[in-house]
Specification:
215 residues; single chain; mainly alpha; elongated
């Protein structure tokens, strides 16, 4: 199915070469609504993003184990907990990588607070991208729209989402720089966070394209 998406994209690019800028605006920069992509109204927003979410806090770990679950339910629950712990380990590693070059405890505290938020933002963005890909596949299956139209809608949506993520990221980054400055510290940690963010975005794009080509 994803190969079809790639074929559609290539076809769109071929068409684009002959019709220029206005076609680009229509095909890749359409005014997309959440209804067009079958998502919640706040899809392009990040209302639940908070600074310093506390990556080590996992409410599910404090719940006592149930005694009346079937074996299948218990196995499912164990797998879910294992996946959650794996994700937490990955998230904490990302945070630690971002703060490892801090030159003081104060700088490390500030960097950790914002690094946790950047990781949270990244996880939200990836989840939204996955939803876009799934909805695009469903639209292709339904055949209610042309392949070119579907490619146009979801590529425009992905671009709109990227703009939204960038806006949130740089708003938080500015707060981080200000807090570092107010504490008499350099912007080194903020610059490092920005570099890491750009690298992560680039790798995610390459990863998604690689998956599409191998499917």
């Amino acid at each position: 199915m994803r190969k079809k998406v790639i074929i559609v994209i290539v076809s769109v690019l071929v068409v684009l070469g002959g019709v220029g800028f206005f076609a680009y605006k229509h095909l890749f920069d359409r005014n997309i609504t959440t209804a067009d992509i079958h998502t919640p109204e706040d899809f392009f927003e990040f209302p639940n993003l908070v600074i310093d979410p506390g990556l080590n806090n996992n409410p599910s770990d404090t719940n006592p184990p149930a005694t009346d679950k079937t074996t299948t339910e218990k196995e499912t629950n164990d797998v879910s907990k294992s996946a959650t712990k794996t994700k937490e380990t990955k998230d904490n590693k990302q945070v630690n990588d971002l703060i490892k070059d801090a030159s003081s405890d104060k700088e490390a505290d500030i960097a950790k607070k914002y690094a946790s938020t950047f990781v949270q933002l990244e996880n939200m963005a990836v989840s939204k991208l996955d939803l876009l890909m799934n909805n695009a596949k469903q639209d292709l299956t339904s055949k209610e729209k042309t392949k070119v139209d579907i490619a146009s809608i979801y590529m425009s949506a992905a671009k709109k989402l990227e703009k939204s993520v960038n806006g949130v990221f740089y708003e938080i980054l500015d707060k981080m720089k200000k807090e570092l400055s107010d504490a008499g510290l350099s912007s080194k940690m903020a610059d490092q966070a920005e570099k890491s963010y750009k690298n992560t975005i680039s790798k995610k794009k390459d990863e998604m394209m690689d998956k599409a080509l191998k499917s």
